[in-house]
Design a protein that fits this description.
The protein is an all-alpha fold. It contains 42 helices and two strands. It is elongated, with a radius of gyration of 37 Å. This is Chlororespiratory reduction 21.
């Protein structure tokens, strides 16, 4: 740039004056104001500053840089009234937001041209003063495609999509032909309003007017086809483009991102010649939402290293990714960064940070941040209520909920989920009833929580009632609600009902398969569970819970060979509980030596339950020698895992070795360990009554124990 300036500081440009002026005009587009004033001084020195083209460029430069005194000085070079100069002053006033000043300048003009009128129409539209803009438009004597397009694009910018389409239809009735900008705005309006038929009908007109290869039109067509769900058409437009910009690449990237094709999305992202904050944010956000937080964070680090601008959406996605991996320290660093760049007051950023602190167990820090947010929205309140619920602080959650100015169904759902996690099932159903009485309709998350409570308490009638409400709301086909319904029916003993829901679901994910297979296996339908597993798409390997259910089914149906086959196929995915299932399967089949060898060769520390399964097999198949060895191992395991003592106590009790039972109980007492009491429940008149061993908390516990003593007396031998 400096060398270009020096080349212009020639003592005599007269030799090639036209080339000199051309170089000056091109420089005015790029040079900063400091060098612009230097060039202006040189032009005055050599007497060329009064050249009209140069004077106009100088005027625009000073107006753009908000130098009114210098601009007025340049304006003196012109006649008392110059139309171009007046238009420049009007445009500068509009860009600086001084609309009334622009209007005054316009009104004072003795004559006006199409630029004068269109500048005012466009300026008022950009400022959101639509009515005033239209007032000037309808009085404009120079109505052409530019002024029509200014109104149509102005409507789109102000979110008035239907008005934009209506204005376009009026334009089509005139003799004026739309241009590239017109089509771009109208296609956007069609995408936003879902007027896909109108959008498709424009294709012929776009081709007829020769705009089919214009960059902005092609970008708008890609977006339109994406909104219509026409991925192939979007890709064809993209592939046929002679030139692409970052908007084109980001649009096609967004297509794959929206359809969860992360592999193809990443390929497109890596091929992009240039990326903006939208494309970076789209990839980071989708990685975070799709359960790939590490990838999201790696991409964010690359983005930071490249010095890209980080918008609110991107920062929120990164905080969510850190929340998923519970990276509290890194999250605190991001919190500090948001304070530094002034984003901590954004409600979405603050809500994500509250969620991070609460999910990392720091509810006090989350509450401090919550209290510091001046303008809280419903998302902020819900984040804090959900955070208290997640950490079992239900009193605080309930107090905050009652203080909330306008709770929505998400707020109710967060509180219900908290009581569910805290196993306060009565409170879960009580809150649901309150919610309905207040006219608040439950969402999908609420139904999932309620159905989970029904499944845990085996409340089939309540579950059926909720199923009916889901049908009434039209959400029974939702994959999450359908999965929760399947789980509820299976755990409540109605396997047939679970199968009906499962078979009617239009969409099934990994968790739906898991719930159905687990329900069949645990209900004694082992063969059916294995048959369903074999129907699964082999491209989707089983998760840990599904694999446990399959091995459980093989164990309880005596299908040892098949179980071992699954073991060899998925050996790299096995954990301690899977090995326990295998030990149980071999022990039940009498293959005790193989079970012992498996325990010895485990790549992980054997669970006490694995040793208990082997010991149970020894008792069943009368192998006293191996039983004694296993008991010793179980004693050693009990030293590492308190659950082992409970296991030993139960085994000795089942064998009638009461002296050993007392010894184990004594050790447990010395170590401060306590066995959880047994619990049972029954549902009567739509209310669940739970009973714990040695508990007298029930309102009718005295009458219950009287009847129980009477029954015990009747059971005594005569």
């Amino acid at each position: 740039m400096r060398s270009a300036i020096k080349s212009l500081l020639a003592p005599n440009p007269a030799a090639n004056f036209e080339a000199y002026v051309s170089r000056c005009l091109s420089l005015f587009k790029t040079i900063p104001i400091t060098q612009g004033t230097v060039l202006h001084g040189h032009l005055i020195k050599i007497g060329t500053s009064s050249e009209r083209y140069l004077s106009v460029k100088l005027l625009i430069m000073y107006l753009t840089c908000r130098k009114p005194a210098e601009a007025r000085q340049v304006a003196k070079e012109f006649n008392p009234f110059d139309l171009v100069v007046q238009n420049c002053f009007i445009n500068a006033s509009l860009q600086s937001g001084e609309l009334d000043k622009a209007r005054k300048l316009f009104d004072e003009m003795p004559e006006r041209n199409e630029v004068s009128w269109t500048s005012l129409i466009s300026g008022f539209m950009k400022a959101g003063r639509v009515g005033e803009s239209l007032w000037y438009f309808w009085r404009n004597p120079f109505q052409n495609v530019v002024s029509w397009t200014a109104v149509i694009s102005g409507f789109v910018q102000n979110g008035l999509m239907f008005e934009a389409l209506s204005m376009f239809l009026e334009l089509c009735q005139s003799e004026i032909r739309p241009n590239e900008v017109t089509f771009t705005s109208v296609l956007k309006a069609c995408s936003e309003t879902g007027e896909f038929r109108l959008g498709m009908s424009l294709l012929g007109l776009i081709i007829k007017t020769g705009n089919e290869h214009k960059l902005s039109v092609s970008n708008s067509l890609i977006t339109l086809f994406l909104r219509m769900g026409e991925m192939d058409s979007s890709r064809r437009v993209f592939d046929s483009m002679e030139k692409r910009d970052v908007v084109s690449w980001t649009a096609i990237l967004d297509m794959y991102v929206e359809h969860d094709d992360l592999i193809e999305a990443r390929r497109i992202f890596d091929e992009m010649p240039q990326r903006n904050e939208v494309s970076w944010s789209a990839m980071i956000s989708r990685y975070s939402q799709s359960g790939h937080p590490e990838e999201a964070l790696n991409l964010f680090h690359k983005m930071v290293r490249k010095g890209k601008f980080i918008n609110v959406s991107c920062l929120s996605s990164v905080i969510n990714a850190l929340t998923t991996v519970k990276a509290l320290l890194a999250g605190m660093n991001i919190h500090g960064h948001t304070v530094k760049i002034g984003m901590e007051r954004d409600v979405y950023i603050s809500s994500s940070l509250i969620d991070l602190y609460c999910k990392c167990g720091q509810t006090s820090d989350g509450r401090f941040l919550f209290d510091s947010v001046a303008e809280k929205n419903v998302v902020t309140w819900n984040s804090m209520i959900g955070g208290y619920g997640l950490n079992g602080q239900m009193e605080e959650a309930n107090s905050l909920f009652e203080a909330m100015p306008s709770p929505n169904n998400v707020s109710w759902s967060a509180l219900i989920a908290g009581y569910l996690d805290d196993t306060q099932f009565d409170k879960v159903f009580e809150l649901f009833n309150q919610m309905l009485l207040l006219g608040e309709w439950p969402n999908k998350s609420t139904f999932s929580s309620l159905l989970c409570a029904c499944a845990t308490t085996a409340s089939l009638e309540k579950g059926k009632n909720l199923h009916g409400k889901a049908i009434k709301l039209g959400i029974q086909s939702d994959v999450f609600v359908g999965t929760a319904l399947t789980d509820m029916y299976a755990k409540s003993g109605d396997v047939e009902g679970a199968c009906k829901v499962f078979n009617r679901m239009p969409q099934i994910n990994e968790f739906t398969w898991t719930v159905m297979i687990q329900g069949l296996a645990e209900s004694g339908f082992a063969i059916e569970a294995l048959e369903l597993f074999d129907k699964m798409d082999s491209r989707n390997p089983p998760n840990e819970l599904m694999l446990s259910s399959i091995l459980f089914a093989c164990s309880h149906s005596g299908l040892v060979s098949r179980g071992l086959q699954y073991f060899r196929t998925f050996e790299t995915k096995l954990n301690g509980s899977h090995y326990t299932c295998l030990v149980d399967m071999l022990s039940r089949a009498g293959r005790l030596e193989e079970a012992e060898e498996l325990i010895e060769s485990m790549p992980v520390e054997p669970e006490p339950y694995a040793l208990a399964a082997l010991l149970s097999g020894c008792q069943r198949h009368k192998n006293e020698e191996l039983a004694e060895k296993t008991v010793k191992k179980l004693w050693r395991a009990a030293e590492r895992d308190s659950g082992g003592y409970v296991m030993l106590s139960n085994l000795y009790a089942s064998a009638g070795r009461w002296k050993d039972v007392l010894e184990v109980r004594k050790l447990m007492k010395e170590k401060g360990l306590k066995k959880n009491g047994g619990c049972s429940w029954i549902e009567l008149k739509n209310q669940v009554h739970s009973f714990h061993s040695g508990d007298g908390a029930h309102s009718q516990s005295i009458e219950i124990y009287v009847v129980l003593d009477l029954l015990m007396y009747e059971m005594l031998p005569v």
